Amino acid sequence: MSSTAAPYPATPRTTPTRARERAHYDHATVHAILDSDYICHLGFVSADGGPIVLPTTYARVGSRLYLHGSTGSRPLRGAAEGLRVCVTVTRTDGLVLARSGMHHSLNYRSVVAHGTAHRVTDPDEHRTALDAIIDRIVPGRAADCRPATAKELAQTAVIRLDLREVSAKVRTGGVNDEPEDRDLPTWAGVIPVSRTLGTPVPDPAMSAETPLPDYLRRLLAEQGLRRGQE
Amino acid sequence: MSSTAAPYPATPRTTPTRARERAHYDHATVHAILDSDYICHLGFVSADGGPIVLPTTYARVGSRLYLHGSTGSRPLRGAAEGLRVCVTVTRTDGLVLARSGMHHSLNYRSVVAHGTAHRVTDPDEHRTALDAIIDRIVPGRAADCRPATAKELAQTAVIRLDLREVSAKVRTGGVNDEPEDRDLPTWAGVIPVSRTLGTPVPDPAMSAETPLPDYLRRLLAEQGLRRGQE
């Protein structure tokens, strides 16, 4: 998706009631946040009218979001004919410690997507979606593992949400204290929060000579603890 | 809450349709997960009948969950008379890389709580809840910052959910490949995922002589990069 594509439209549901300056609708911002986490929170309304929020793995392919059926069959039974969903992805980036309790905050990036999800029934799309979900966890991994058999595919459900009504919210930067609080003696500032990958734990059943694949070395070089830091 | 308290009861909504061995109902497991994150995902049903999932700060106090009103006023308007909610907290602990695509997974800890939330109107409970939400971010912080004024309290809404119908799901351990896949040449194992606090970034407006408080030193000693690792 080109960064020059028209932004996602702002709608009443995707326009915040406060802190509007934190809202973003451009593809680059929305997609980068969606591509930065392992788990999304899938919301839907149960048969009895109550809200349900379940964590599940997912992936973005263009302007489509694919969610894995491991959240149990309840939402997926409904998705054959279309299930209204809200999918939210949130990363925490910092603890914002202000001088007043009131102005404590978090630095974060989140995306909220609304729409009607449908179960993926086309076999090619189903396979592509499952590969994308694996590659969301470790880019390059899907091509390196045994593909799903027809039986496995039949056991694994995927639902698709086309990204149409979607927005990002981002808070960055430092503390926003009231001017009259600036001279209080309390320490104020931001504690950065990051996610780190640790030393791989090989499956004990695997030959000790099995090399760590290049795509994993690359990922660890980008997001892992540097050697000697563990 | 004593660890010998009776577990939360399993209900149809809190009994998973699959991987039932991952479900936990004891207070110690449920509370520890709730006490391990900065953000929960709050689900509710909007006036038009659609699901909404918003990230927000929160804290647990005993068997009560308090959610901060910074998610916007929409859910809080409904909460005066009781709002059906589902609150979910999820931590990712590892990337589980199996030999088959099918058995890829994440190690994670999640809690899902169902119930009816109410807006907190008692001034003492309101203040206690806001302090707990600050202390969830940095334990000990609430006592070190300027308390909310009456005007600030009036601007800040908190909703409470009593924990009654709540369960945890936890996946730990290694890969669960099919026996016939064990000899495939693919690297298999787990990549640990952890959250790390970085070097504090002091507010530029603060005197350079302001010491880092003890509670922050302790937190960084527990969860921060060790000195020289950054």
Automatic annotation (TrEMBL), chains A, B:
Give the source's domain of life in one word.
Bacteria
Region Disordered, residue ranges: 1-22
Under InterPro entries, the record lists: Pyridox_Oxase-rel, Split_barrel_FMN-bd
Tell me where the transmembrane regions lie.
none
Spell out the Gene3D superfamilies in the cross-references: Electron Transport, Fmn-binding Protein, Chain A
Compositional bias segments (type: Low complexity)? 1-17
**UniProt xrefs under Pfam families:** Pyridox_ox_2
PANTHER family in UniProt: 5-NITROIMIDAZOLE ANTIBIOTICS RESISTANCE PROTEIN, NIMA-FAMILY-RELATED PROTEIN-RELATED (PTHR34071), FLAVIN-NUCLEOTIDE-BINDING PROTEIN (PTHR34071:SF2)
- Protein name, as recorded: Pyridoxamine 5'-phosphate oxidase family protein
Specify the species.
Nocardiopsis mwathae
Q: What is the taxonomic lineage of the source species?
A: Bacteria, Bacillati, Actinomycetota, Actinomycetes, Streptosporangiales
